[in-house]
Write a structure and sequence with these properties.
about 525 residues, mainly alpha, Serine Threonine Protein Phosphatase 5, Tetratricopeptide repeat, 4-stranded mixed beta sheet, 4 strands, about 60% helix, globular
């Protein structure tokens, strides 16, 4: 890369970049940064990145101090800076492109967006596609992550990144590989070939994972609903042998990721709770308390750790500090864990949830649906009947329909349907008649089930990793209404070696559900 420029020119440009970067870091106010930029004559594009990076840093500081970081977008000097960077981007090398991508990813943009940021991101991606063989694993992963954060998903850019990544996959560190995977996730792109290569590389490099790498890897796997058991088993083994290496925030994230992947046990939950209590548990934020309790509930925990009640108490003390996600997670957890001693706190939580307009986030709405049904069945009279608005009811119903549509052509669902349909009627007992299943059917006016036999009043659901919650609360409600339920754990469905084993297992589960009703 350095050979493209004469030594003297390279040294001069590098020296100027370092000088600008050093000076930019001394600024503590965005106005100081923009005044410096405005006072320069023909500042090279390579020296604009440190200014944008510092503005992002100051924005973050202002946010923590209740400042107004969005004000910068009303400043013509800032928009001029972005326009100059965009128009001069073609002269940048791969490292500079990567730094620009990281800089604009860290900028906090207003709700209405910023066209100049969008144009700059597009310019970076277009120039990057012309830099074949120029990126390292580090600069490429930073580029992808940064541009994905700013909404870039151009097919040409995606194909370029895939090709460049596969060329040098053996040089990717765990940090680089995880960042690449997260970047593709943010672009809503799942490429099986690239994902398989990344997972293979991560598996080879398990011994080089840091605590941060493990947390980030488990996090992105849970967001992608990526069930790669061999790698996850190795990561959890390393993690639980070294829990003291994780700080409190990392433990919370690790717990959340493993719970969403359905990769926790009562024993592992006890270990995580003990590690959390070993630190300064009370210093966790309100949303972290909610996430811990939600993770416990997601784990089908059957232990007796007193830490669970302590976390629930601390979370309920900080209701006013919870985000909408935190409120819904806490409500779902309290309902699932049947924490009746927090009845009044649950009432306050529900009041706060339904006092705001329904969000568009499908995961929040699906959790809220289970909470709403749970209140009606298990806590009648806890809230007023008209508290849940028509908008909330409509949004939750639409979210459930969309969730069912996601599974319409899912391979696992098609396999289970074929297995059930292959079960032959028995000569006697509860399976004398053939099972006839309908997909995504409404059951008792409460929920839609993956499969439902109305004649037998039998509901079958698959607890896939893509579901925002486990089936515990949903099936508890359906059983209360007299429905026979079969919940199939994702990892359980994967352990059978052949069709016959799967069929026998499924047949026994259905028979048990119908007999025990």
């Amino acid at each position: 890369m350095l050979s493209r420029f004469p030594p003297s020119r390279y040294c001069t440009s590098t020296r100027r970049f370092i000088q600008t970067k050093t000076l930019a870091r001394t600024f503590r106010d965005i106005q100081d940064v923009l005044e410096f930029y405005d006072g320069q004559v023909a500042l090279p594009v390579t020296q604009l990145e440190p200014l944008i990076s510092q503005i992002a840093f100051i924005q973050a500081s202002q946010k923590s101090n209740q400042g107004r970081p969005d004000d910068v977008f009303a400043d013509k000097r800032f928009l001029k800076l972005l326009l100059q960077a965009s128009s001069d981007m073609s002269s940048c090398d791969s490292s500079t492109l990567s730094r620009f991508a990281s800089a604009i990813a860290n900028i906090s943009i207003p709700r209405g967006g910023c066209q100049e940021i969008v144009d700059l991101a597009r310019s970076i991606s277009e120039v990057a596609c012309k830099r074949t063989n120029a990126f390292s694993p580090s600069t490429l992963s930073s580029l992808v992550f940064g541009l994905a954060t700013r909404g870039v998903s151009d097919p040409q850019f995606i194909e370029f990144v895939k090709i460049e990544s596969l060329k040098m996959m053996q040089d990717f560190t765990p940090e680089n590989a995880i960042m690449l995977l997260e970047g593709f996730r943010r672009m809503n792109v799942f490429d099986r070939e690239l994902t398989d290569n990344v997972v293979e590389r991560l598996t080879d490099e398990v011994d080089r994972f840091t605590a941060r790498d493990i947390v980030n890897c488990v996090g992105v796997f849970s967001k992608l609903s990526l069930g790669r058991g061999f790698l996850l088993r190795r990561l959890t083994k390393v993690s639980f042998e070294n829990l003291s290496a994780f700080n409190q925030g990392q433990l919370v994230k690790l717990f959340g990721g493993l719970a969403r992947l359905r990769f926790t046990t009562t024993q592992s939950v006890d270990a995580l709770l003990e590690a959390l209590e070993g630190g300064d548990l009370r210093k966790l934020s309100a949303n972290q308390f909610a996430e811990v309790l939600f993770s416990v509930a997601m784990s089908n925990y059957t232990g007796g750790s007193g830490t669970v009640n302590l976390v629930a108490d601390l979370a309920c003390e900080k209701i006013d500090s919870l985000s909408l996600t935190g409120l819904v997670d806490l409500a779902w957890a309290l309902m699932t864990l049947e924490s009746s001693q927090h009845r009044e706190a649950l009432k306050m939580i529900l009041t706060k949830i339904y006092s705001v307009p329904a969000p568009s986030n499908r995961a929040i709405l699906l959790k809220a649906l289970e909470v709403t049904n749970g209140v009606a069945i298990e806590y009648p009279g806890l809230i007023k009947k008209d508290m849940v608005s028509g908008q909330w009811k409509s949004a939750m119903d639409d979210a459930e329909k969309l969730e069912m549509n996601r599974f319409e052509n899912a391979r696992l669902h098609s396999e289970i349907l074929a297995l059930v349909e292959s079960i032959q009627p028995a000569s006697e007992g509860v399976l004398m008649d053939k099972i006839t299943l309908q997909r995504a059917s409404q059951v008792e006016g409460l929920y839609r089930a993956d499969f439902y036999d109305a004649e037998k009043n039998l509901a079958i659901d698959i607890d896939t990793l893509a579901r925002p919650t486990t089936l515990v609360l949903k099936h508890r409600h359906l059983m209360t209404e007299g429905v026979a339920v079969v919940g199939l754990n994702y990892w359980e469905t994967r352990r059978f070696k052949n069709f016959e084993e799967q069929q026998a297992y499924l047949k026994s589960r259905i028979k048990k559900a119908l007999s025990s009703r």
